[in-house]
Amino acid sequence: MTTITLPAYAKLNLTLDILGRRADGYHDLCMVMQSISLHDDVTVTLTDADSIVCRCGMLPGDDSNLAVKAAKAFFTETGIVPRGLLIDIEKRIPMQAGMAGGSTDAAAVMHALRALLAPELTTQKLEAIGAQVGSDVPYCVRGGTVLAERRGEKLTTLNAAPRFRVVVCKPDFSISTPVLFNHSDSVALLDHPDTDGMLHAIEERDVLGISARVFNVFEQVLTDEQTEVFDIKDQLITLGASATAMTGSGSAVFGLFTESGQAQLAFHNLRQHYQQTYLAEFI
Ligand code: C5P
Description:
- With 283 residues, the protein is an alpha+beta fold.
- It contains nine helices and eleven strands.
- The protein is 34% helix and 29% strand.
- Cytidine-5'-monophosphate binds next to strand 2 and helix 5.
């Protein structure tokens, strides 16, 4: 086998809490993460060339691309003799959305390289390599319903959450992750998610309990130019969402739905105003 195509799933933050700033400049986090069906397709092909070529739509395919970084980290950390690679990424996940679009492509590249070259490698090892590539990559390697702590690399797999339908809407503006973290350092974060309650609700498959605890601490530090996030949340609630939040460092906003008809209606409604609107479900 010399080529493999894998889906790279987007993530949502059901909760996101910042516990504090660390000496290394990163932040200790506590997040309940959930994979959704919206995905990119990542094809990795072994070639006879001595370079890694990455084709990813309009995005640069150089070393700044997390998929390329992941391939290089994979070879360095496993000691496997580097191979020429062609990485093709068909993007669907919106960029700069807080949905781990780049991180999930990186994770898919590592899964593909394992399948092609080193099937004996453990998922734990892939996650450890992923931690060097980006904070969200270990979670993307694992996927599912997961509690992610510290920088994002301490993972605890939870019972699969009930299969909510999801409408995700990405406004036109984007939010810089480092700027948002810096901003969060300079203001008092008065409200925090009830993470324990969320873990309990997931354990019990309690749809109402989960919905009541969806919360992203970053919503408190948005600027006046970013209030469209709250407009979209309001629209999602009006359209029947049982919960809404910004995901990660934004700017995408999601609504959870228990009925697929309502989710479809909300999707079509929001799609009229926001080109980057998506209908998906938990996986
Ligand atoms: O690890 P990654 O490159 O994805 O992180 C992007 C930025 O997000 C970091 O440069 C840092 O500013 C911020 N970050 C953080 N604490 C984390 C994860 C990310 O401060 N746990």
